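User: I'm putting together a teaching handout on how multi-component assemblies are represented. Below are the sequence lines for each component of a complex, exactly as they appear in our records. Could you produce the 3D structure of the whole assembly as structure tokens, so the students can see both representations side by side? Please keep the chain order the same as the input.
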Amino acid sequence: MRVGEVMTREVKSVPFDATGTEALRLLQEMKISGLPVVDKENTLLGMFTEKDILSYILPSYIEKVGRFIYKDDPKSTKKKFAELGTVKINQLMRKEVITTTEDTALCEVARIMLTQRARRLPVIDAKGKLIGIIAREDVLRAFAQETQQA
Amino acid sequence: MLKKFITLIVVSVSLGFLSRGVGLSVHQATAVTIFSVSILGTLIFWNFRLSFAFLGTSVLLLSRTIDIEHLIRFSSLEIILFLVGMMVIIGLLKEEGLFAWLVSMILRIPHLTAKKFFFAISILSALLACAIDEVTSIIFMVAAIIEICDYFEIDPRPFIICSVMTTNIGSAGTVLGNPIGILIATKAGLSFEDFIIKAFPLMLLCLCAAVFVLLIWYQKAIRELDQQIKRFGANEILMRLISVPPERHLKISLVIFIFTLVFISLHHRLELALSLEKNTILLVAPLFSAGIIMLWKWRKAREFIEKDVEWWTLLFFMLLFAQAGTLKYTGASDILAQRLVAFAGNNLDVLKGIVVWLSAIGSSILDNVVLVASFIPVMQSFQSMHVNLQSLWWALLFGGCFGGNITFVGSTANIVALGILEKEKNIRMTFFQWFWIGLTVGIITTAIVWIVLLVVPWY
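Assistant: Of course. Below is the structure of the complete assembly, with chains in the same order as your input.
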């Protein structure tokens, strides 16, 4: 089975000029945790997830400082959350995105998802344009169907 | 990119030809060329420094400029193992929350005033750099400063600059403060006690001078913080912002760290008592503690080694030391040392001035480990010329540490602190915002060291 047979073709994406707040609203409306970011020509620019917002609003040094417990919310977190209304999506999104193509085998996508810890992969064409998205759920559903048919 | 690469090759090859022109042999000129590529490579292509080190070392072996046995000997494995041990210990302390606990202590300064804050961060930065290392200590100092400045809604830049500069000064106080400390200690045969008796008091003197200069320079920022403290009231929210439960593991980690520090500080006496080779205990103490940690936390042992040890940097150091050693092995450094001594008119005082100022200026541009590694073969050649070396080693140490304050790329601590500032506050410091205060502090502290080395016979 190939990616093209199971991927979602109607992909909702975040426009490259959206702000953090607009992108977050989109995620909340769609009840999903991440979306691809595209330009006017639908070329894939990056991926935006809820995790990107968390890493923006929390201090970057928390991992370096080591183990501790927040007993209260620091002022900076609230301030940074408020700033999301003016911060452009390209400052928040992840630019190094693992992608796949329509004719990739499903097992290969599963391997990438497992080894790269990816929940979903954008599917692009030869020109880098976004043509679909495939999630772990799609892969597992396809495997289940294939097994039932066999 | 290509232009820079061509410049690097042209400058290095020209240096090689120049070396031949002044009478160096083919092997000596090759060693000079390869070492120049490594030094200039780190300056121009920081991210590729390890590639340059690998390629350069391969050329040295292939051209028979050095043999494998000497290459291994000069790579100073003992220093690398010391640093590996310390990195594992620091990794444990971080994991158990010691650094976060220190941040919480700074946030909880009672009856906070701007001057109290200024003195606290300056003194703590210097002393913590002495006890751990400058790069680790600056991370949590900057974290605490940004939290406090955010709370009182003031510009963190002046306080971050103070903390970074006092960190660089403090890093000269002990063997542990900076990789160049252990490098100099092992090559010069200096003990931790020597550092405590000679380097630490001189560091304190320079710290006082720097704090005085910074206090005057940033008096406006200090006044502004005082006004904000009056406006916002006490730092009550900051006091309860973060906590680290004093768990048993944190206490055990602290005991291991103190045990390591005690052994490091007593290493010279223990070595004498046990008739061990010089600096054996100094090098063994962190390794022994790291071994205990990996037995205790055996599930995470691999993580400590893979994540907390900076192999990229350590491999670069190893090959850099080997390449610098090639200068000694081929005799190139002997010729340079003879020229330097002749230039100084066989006068030790002039030589002290040359070493302290050259290393300060050099480390304002170059990584101080690179700079000290290049100086070491020359210093060793001085020894064969019966020059009294100890004062020159101190000159190299202080010049290498204090020169880092002059520019914002002068030391790793500067780069790390400004990186956090940019990421957190979107503040990108310009070269001159740093340079004028950096130059002032750099010149004053280096001049103090120079005068002390000239006047006090103790050194």
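A couple of points students might notice: Chain B has a mean pLDDT of 91. Chain B touches chain A at residues 93-101, 103-104, 139-140, 142-143, 146-147, 150-151, 237, 240-245, 420, 423-424 (CB under 8 Å).
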